[in-house]
Amino acid sequence: MIPKHNEIRLEALKLLSQEGAMQFRAMEMPLAKVFKLTEEEIERKYESGNGKIFLDRISWALSLICPRFNGQFKRLISC
Fold it and tell me: Among 9, 12, 22, 50, fewest CB within 10 Å belongs to which?
């Protein structure tokens, strides 16, 4: 099952503390491993076709960790 943004938040912080600043899209595969997601879950898109669900939830998790983060930035800026 694809985790909710509040479930991703702690794991995202752990990943950032280990790896430092990184592109949020680069967090997709390491976090997918943590949550043991299948390829289908990683690639699943919203019914509207407006993007991948898991990647969107990573973005939401990061926006709540760092209010200055938004999905348009290529790198997570220091908060």
Answer: 50
